[in-house]
């Protein structure tokens, strides 16, 4: 089935030049992204994987039946033209034998150009779409986002790498554990989507917390809607720029004394990763605080 995507690309190269000037690229095996600009167009797909397979079928595969999202289409044969109009045309396209058995499939996702794009995510208080933070220097970080209230979607693809890495980044999805892995010659990242669908957790597996970072981390998240629209959002940073310690653990508390310790998630040894604590002494009654004093330790 993985070869089907490459068959689509070959077919598109042969036909798209005179039919549709838009760009297109493979996101994952059997997932094709087509960029549109709002005008009419067509995107060709192919069912069979090679010319030899086409020749083995009667009348060049005219018995092949196509379906879009489970609904049978009128087009027949090895080739199929996806009709593109504005942001329409995306869907799950399958090709079948006459008896209904599945031959191949591909998901077509639509990406609008910058001038027509309607954002799936909304900006946060920092006027950004992705908010990333880390609880320590160990190489783990978390990025979250807010869905548009009328366009809630899901993650289609995750890519993470060090920006200055000259080697090409290869990303794969382990569907058994829903874990994304991205590798280059100098870095290895693993990422997973939160159960809530509002963020991802990633780990730079080759990060050394005791060394100074020389390359920024670059994260790109592709999100899609149920209507097969796809958009990508990116952010780059040093881990040191996004570190925010977890809550301090208070282990003892009485009327005259409190004791606290470093957050359990903080990097060690503490002598190498020191924290400065601020203590606020608040005075007031149950209705509200009237005065306060601030000291540091």
Protein architecture, described:
The model is unreliable at 1-21 and 289-297 (pLDDT under 50). Strand 10 and strand 11 (140-144) form a beta hairpin. With 297 residues, this protein is mainly beta. It has three domains: 23-112, Immunoglobulin-like, CATH 2.60.40.10; 121-241, Immunoglobulins (Immunoglobulin-like, Sandwich); 249-296, no CATH class. It has three helices and 23 strands. It comes from Seriola quinqueradiata (Five-ray yellowtail). One of its GO terms (molecular function) is cytokine activity. This is Interleukin-12 subunit beta. InterPro entries: FN3_sf (IPR036116), Ig-like_dom (IPR007110), Ig-like_fold (IPR013783), IL-12 (IPR050676), IL-12_beta (IPR015528), IL-12_beta_cen-dom (IPR019482). Residues 1-18 form the signal peptide.
């Amino acid at each position: 089935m993985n070869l089907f995507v490459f068959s689509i690309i070959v077919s598109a190269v042969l036909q798209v030049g005179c039919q549709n000037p838009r760009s297109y690229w493979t996101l994952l095996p059997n997932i094709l992204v087509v960029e549109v600009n709002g005008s009419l167009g067509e995107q060709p797909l192919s069912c069979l994987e090679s010319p030899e397979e086409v020749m083995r079928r009667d009348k060049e595969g005219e018995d092949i039946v196509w379906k879009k999202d489970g609904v049978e289409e009128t087009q027949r044969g090895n080739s199929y033209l996806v009709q593109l109009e504005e942001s329409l045309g995306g869907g799950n396209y399958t090709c079948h034998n006459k008896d209904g058995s599945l031959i191949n499939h591909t998901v077509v996702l639509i990406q609008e150009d910058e001038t027509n794009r309607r954002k799936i995510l909304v900006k946060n208080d920092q006027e950004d779409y992705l908010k990333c933070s880390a609880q320590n220097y160990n190489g783990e970080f978390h990025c979250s986002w807010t869905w548009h209230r009328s366009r809630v979607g899901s993650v289609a693809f995750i890519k993470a790498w060090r920006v200055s890495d000259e080697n090409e980044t290869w990303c794969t999805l382990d569907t058994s554990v829903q874990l994304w892995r991205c590798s280059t010659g100098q870095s290895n990242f693993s990422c997973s989507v939160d159960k809530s669908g509002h963020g991802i957790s990633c780990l730079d597996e080759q990060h050394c917390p005791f060394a100074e970072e020389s390359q920024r981390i670059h994260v790109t998240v592709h999100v899609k809607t149920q209507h097969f629209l796809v958009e990508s959002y990116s952010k780059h940073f040093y881990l040191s720029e996004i570190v925010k310690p977890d809550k301090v653990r208070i282990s003892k508390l009485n009327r005259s004394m409190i004791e606290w310790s470093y957050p359990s998630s903080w990097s060690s040894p503490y002598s190498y990763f020191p924290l400065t604590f601020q203590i606020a002494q608040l005075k007031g009654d149950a209705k509200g605080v009237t005065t306060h004093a601030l000291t540091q330790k």
